[in-house]
Automatic annotation (TrEMBL):
<dbReference type="GO" id="GO:0004674">
    <property type="term" value="F:protein serine/threonine kinase activity"/>
</dbReference>
<keyword id="KW-0723">Serine/threonine-protein kinase</keyword>
<protein>
    <recommendedName>
        <fullName>Histidine kinase/HSP90-like ATPase domain-containing protein</fullName>
    </recommendedName>
</protein>
<dbReference type="InterPro" id="IPR003594">
    <property type="entry name" value="HATPase_dom"/>
</dbReference>
<keyword id="KW-0808">Transferase</keyword>
<dbReference type="InterPro" id="IPR050267">
    <property type="entry name" value="Anti-sigma-factor_SerPK"/>
</dbReference>
<dbReference type="Pfam" id="PF13581">
    <property type="entry name" value="HATPase_c_2"/>
</dbReference>
<feature type="domain" description="Histidine kinase/HSP90-like ATPase">
    <location>
        <begin position="12"/>
        <end position="131"/>
    </location>
</feature>
<keyword id="KW-0418">Kinase</keyword>
<dbReference type="InterPro" id="IPR036890">
    <property type="entry name" value="HATPase_C_sf"/>
</dbReference>
Amino acid sequence: VDQELILELPNDIRSIEHAVEYVTRHCTSCCEYARRLNLNFRVGLTEALSNAMLYGNNSDPEKSVRVEVAIKLEEVSVRVTDQGVGFDPTTVPDPTLPANISKSGGRGIFLMKALMDEVQFNDRGNSVTLVLRFEGEATA
């Protein structure tokens, strides 16, 4: 691991933008992958943080969200953990199915899976790990 970051964020959606900016700024070893980092990683992390704050912690200002980032030459991974009871990600409706188009749930998870190379939930469902790999992806 080239660099590790650990953040404890207040359960306040206004802290998301600053946290995403801070983490992305520390990914200097990934600068040749700036496009994927600035789009895929930013959106994926933003979705994970908002899900943790709004759904996981149920917007409770007494709770916090832990962010653990591992920056390597070939990938960046981030684990977002809330203090909620968790959920079963397999029960979230697929937002691309016609029956679910108008439902609000599932879009964040769908986006994370579409933009990241790996999305894994822990057994309890209160922690998600996102991985963005860089091998063979170098573009100007």
